[in-house]
Design brief:
It is an enzyme of class 5 (isomerase). This protein has 246 residues and is of the alpha+beta class. It contains six helices and six strands. Helix 2 packs across helix 4. The longest helix has 14 residues.
Length: 246
């Protein structure tokens, strides 16, 4: 397999693109390499998911678990996506990693099956608008598997008001996640939870833990959630760990 440099050294584990000053990034493989059997579909997907921007992966339908993307993507599509990435230089911007850059269209909300969880309560429909949340990564995920709209995800979380008051959590007492403890599971991106969760979780990779600060418009708005001890117009803070994607 062709290496990352002109001297054909072995491919590094992080699959990063070499880049000289004032020069565009170049890929590790030639078109001839990709058209043959020297490079597998999974290798191409891994590289694209590690290096391409979230917007590029979304446009090319390459978000999701490695297994699912490999099933739904042809080799020709992956090769074209690789060439397009190099041509347009749509690489991931690490400086912007902590903030969602592109909003998705709002969807009508439906009550969730888990009515005991405050985050799994319906919120009003929202039209397309700039993101109303920020994300700070507390623990990096695998940077390979990202949930797509409709995927089932599982999360541990703690929800707080701005003054630090905890209004909801599924973390066991003492923080130990034993056999009896179960994470919250739901279909992401389809209105089963508040919009801030739907949008933020689709930017997190499997295993990632993040702090989400969600404006009231993408949480419970002007009415709040009295039964959940959430006042009107409340900005909510969550610590969320994404533990599985199906």
């Amino acid at each position: 397999m062709r290496g990352w440099s002109e001297n054909s050294h072995a491919i590094s584990k992080d699959r990063s693109f070499p880049q000289t000053s004032m020069a565009a990034k170049k890929g590790p493989w030639s078109v001839q390499d990709l058209q043959g059997d020297r490079v597998s579909k999974k290798e191409i997907i891994q590289l694209l998911q590690q290096q391409a921007s979230h917007q590029f992966l979304e446009e090319q339908k390459l978000l999701g678990s490695l297994k699912n993307v490999a099933k739904t993507s042809t080799k020709d599509h992956l090769v074209k996506s690789y060439e397009l990435l190099l041509k347009n230089q749509k690489f991931k911007d690490d400086k912007a990693e902590n903030v969602q850059s592109k909003p998705s269209k709002g969807v009508g909300k439906k009550p969730a099956a888990d009515s005991k969880s405050t985050v799994a309560t319906a919120a009003p429909p929202v039209v397309e608008e700039p993101p109303k949340y920020s994300k700070s990564v507390l623990k990096r995920g695998d940077k390979l598997s990202y949930p797509q709209r409709g995927d089932t995800v599982a999360c541990w979380y703690k929800g707080m008001l701005e003054d630090g008051t905890v209004f909801d959590s599924n973390l066991p007492a003492g923080g130990r996640k034993g056999k009896s403890a179960k994470p919250l599971t739901f279909k992401v991106g389809v209105g089963k939870v508040i919009k801030g969760w739907d949008e933020a979780l689709m930017t997190m990779s499997n295993g990632e833990k993040a702090r989400l600060e969600i404006e009231s418009e993408w949480a419970y708005g002007k009415k709040g959630l009295p039964d959940g001890k959430i006042p009107p117009n409340a900005k909510l803070i969550f610590e969320v760990e994404l533990v599985s994607i199906e």
